[in-house]
Amino acid sequence: MRRFPGIAFRGSDARRRPWIIGAGLDVWQVIEAYQSFGSVERMVSETDLEESQIRLAPAYWKQYPDEIDEAIAQNRVPVDEARDLYPFIRYRDIEEVAT
What residues of the chain score a pLDDT lower than 70? Predict the structure, then answer.
């Protein structure tokens, strides 16, 4: 937290996750969004995040790329694999969500 003021950690030591204070988002979530938006300027104009919050995430990612890349990869588990991993969760089809 001293190296990256504005970042705090959630969870136990073994499963702690860095998150952006004031945004409520984990660093990996900001990075994933940043990759989708393509620029800091676009993210600032189209989200409620401040420029300083957005710029903090890549700074952390640069120092700890494996940690952030792993979290992003875990979020991108295919639906069939997720159903096997978490059979107790009810998954909605995209058609259900659209109606």
Answer: 1, 91, 93-99
State phi, psi for 29 to the nearest 5 degrees. -70, -40
With CA atoms as reference, report the closest residue to 23 among 44, 37, 2, 1: 44
Residue 54 is part of which domain span?
7-98
- 2 lies in some domain: no
Q: Tell me, yes or no, whether 15 lies in a domain.
A: yes
Q: Which amino acid is at 78?
A: P
DSSP string, 64-95: SHHHHHHHHHHHT--HHHHHHH-TTSPPPPHH
